[in-house]
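Students often ask why we bother predicting the structure of a whole assembly rather than each chain alone. The short answer is interfaces. A chain on its own may look different once its partners are present, and contacts between molecules only exist in the joint model. In this exercise we take four input lines together and write out one structure for the complete complex. Read the inputs first and try to guess which parts will touch.
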Amino acid sequence: MTKQVEDCPIETTLKQISGKWKSVIIFRLLEHPQCRFNELQKLIPECSRRMLALQLKELEHDGLISKTFYPVVPPKTEYSLTERGKKLKPVIEGLQEWGRIN
Amino acid sequence: MTKQVEDCPIETTLKQISGKWKSVIIFRLLEHPQCRFNELQKLIPECSRRMLALQLKELEHDGLISKTFYPVVPPKTEYSLTERGKKLKPVIEGLQEWGRIN
DNA sequence: CAGTATCCCGGCAGATACTG
DNA sequence: CAGTATCTGCCGGGATACTG
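Now the answer. The structure tokens for the assembled complex follow.
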């Protein structure tokens, strides 16, 4: 029943931030706490709209970011980190620090 | 010349530990400092021999693990974390902690 | 503006067989 | 034991067009 991978939750945890663009999105949202869809696009121009939408959806599903939708015309959305997402800050910074040092 | 992604090194850094099996391998090598190829296979049974070899090669290339080859018969190898790899310990633990809390 | 739908291709990764 | 070689199928992700 219990598989090895489940005993090693680091894998599951890492998946939540290691999608093709997730870390960058989180990183950007740490710098820019409130972002609209197109703002994120401009901040991460290499990421296609399709992928941005998909990754945002996963991040939202995993409770790392939250999305506020304003049903105005034209439509407006705002993405920001949840409390859970913000708690990643020291970890992300630790990673950066590690990357910088080597 | 300079692309956005290069200004955001977290992405590069994360890639070094977010291959399909890298985090698990690092994790296992933190628990078991010296591992032979087949030992790692047994510790991570869901990972094919092919993938294990590929991921190990990348980890070695990135300087996270080192490989010692003993030209005996039958051949014997030993994988372990480098100093650089060991420095990831607090980060990995931070990730685990974050994953545990939520 | 903020996405979704659809088509399509290259490359990731499994299975299997082989080697020093 | 510790890998590599090859073949193949699948799906991640780009490009483009469309929608509320």
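Check your guess against this: Chain A touches chain B through 36 residues (CB under 8 Å).
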